[in-house]
Amino acid sequence: MDERLRAFGTQLIIVHDWLRKELSRLREDMDAYLDGRGGRPRDLLAHCMTFCTALSRHHTGEDTHAFPALAEQFPELAPTLEKLREDHHLVTGILGKLESLVAGADPADAERVRSELDGLAAIMESHFSYEERRIVTALNELAHGYDGTGLDLTALAAPRRST
Question: Residue 130 burial by CB count (10 A; 0-12/13-18/19+): exposed, middle or buried?
Fold first, then answer.
């Protein structure tokens, strides 16, 4: 079996850690700009878009592939998976607001941008922690008893580090 298919749950934690770090970097970049500690980084919007796309792709992969596979093998996880899907919808709305704010951000928008980033960080941490507590073991068990047929969990792989 492919190494990637042996530890879905472990891979999920690696992706979450990558997303946490990227959000932290994005917050630092935005704070530096909004606090007047230098000019607006040229790639701030690109960094935001890359992060938002990676997070959206991760959640879509979970909703489309990982969660249905888990629900099939572990029906008792249905309420947990539904809560996680609800979180994904909430995050999607925040990402849309964040992308719009960052695209037109100037120092006058500092509080709104910080508020959205802080809200996103809080929701993501709560969501990731809950997900890790509730489904990592099941994902790892799924990986050991699953041949990978029809299951695309590439969204559980950490993207390459943005620059």
Answer: middle
Q: What pTM was estimated for this model as a whole?
A: 0.80
- Spell out, as residue ranges, where the chain has pLDDT lower than 50: 1-2, 4-6, 149-150, 162-163
Q: Please report the domains of the chain, with CATH numbers, ordered by start residue.
A: 3-156 (1.20.120.520)
What is the full DSSP assignment across 31-82?
HHHHTTSSSPPTTHHHHHHHHHHHHHHHHHHIIIIIHHHHHHH-GGGHHHHH
Task: Show the tokens assigned to 92.
Answer: 């999607």
| Chain mean position to CA 95 | 11
